[in-house]
Amino acid sequence: MAMPVKVKKWGNSMAVLIPNRFAKSHEIEVGTVIDLERVRIVKPKRRRYKLSELLRGFKPRHRHGEWDLGAPVGKEIW
Question: What is the pTM of this model?
């Protein structure tokens, strides 16, 4: 039963929250000593988005016009 959990910062240390379902199935209770020698590090795969997926939620009402910022005040060349 694969159950990845995330290591979090806890003061100057790190902590792992053990899900209740996992703890019950492995008979882990408060105060149980656990051997961390056989921990397997799982690197999550980064999701790659396509532009079409990102733009799917873009609606015409989200499009805004240009802003009038006034006349140039310095040596701008626009």
Answer: 0.46
